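Session log. Operator J.P. requested a structure for one protein chain; no other inputs attached. Running the standard single-chain path with token output.
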Amino acid sequence: MVDARDVAEIAAKILTDEPDHHHAKVHTPTGPEAISFTQVAAQLHEAIGNPVSYVAVPDDAARQAMLAAGLSEWLVGMLVEYGHAYSTGWSDYTTNDVQELLERQPRRLPTSPATTPQHSTSKRSIMRTTTWRRYRACAAGSQSGHRTRCPPAIRRAASGRSHWRRLSRGR
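Structure written below.
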């Protein structure tokens, strides 16, 4: 597994480097060690101080749950395939891509609250939260029989997003 911050730094480097540096190359960044989901859960437990456990879900059950949640067939197929590959040892290796690209060792998963990334408070994050709250208020008013009219911008932001509709139903 690889830290998301390392992935972001690598993406930024590739996008800002000269194109010839990365032409026809495949980068496969990994963390400093190959770890299992159980080990990730243990490290997260240590980092945040709350119980965290990993529970393996059978492929068919995962597929049915994701389809019921509104994910596309293609995305569900890809996620199930990736999960199956990961659980059968596909990712039991490390590379030196992070070190070569960033000239430093890859990060380990956070092991203390001080190294755990905090929630974003960016303007974009705040706008998403505000839009979601407005949409939820409109949806709640409509479901309770009140004649509520959601502003067009809120309807557009929420349309086509099954996870928003699912959340508005309390799932």
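Operator note: Residues 123-143 form the longest helix (21 residues).
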